[in-house]
């Protein structure tokens, strides 16, 4: 079971842990953000095309053919 820590000690521990974090640079953040948007665009395009192909195939099989 966890022991209780007083709030002042807890805040000191949090600050010391945050100081150990290696924060990304502005450039790294920008590159990561752009890459996320590119991958989202690729995924959206892939899913849209896949959905259209499946809809066409089902329509063809069911005889409603578009």
From TrEMBL:
Family matches, as InterPro entries: SecE_bac, SecE_sf, Translocase_SecE/Sec61-g
Compartments reported by the entry: Cell membrane; Membrane
Physiological role: Essential subunit of the Sec protein translocation channel SecYEG. Clamps together the 2 halves of SecY. May contact the channel plug during translocation.
Organism of origin: Aureimonas phyllosphaerae
GO biological process: intracellular protein transmembrane transport; protein secretion; protein targeting; protein transport by the Sec complex
Protein's recorded name: Protein translocase subunit SecE
Lineage top rank: taxon: Bacteria
Membrane-spanning ranges: 30-49
Record's bilayer topology term: Single-pass membrane protein
Location (main, coarse): membrane
UniProt GO cellular component terms: plasma membrane
A GO molecular-function annotation: protein transmembrane transporter activity
Pfam families (UniProt xref): SecE
Record gene name: secE
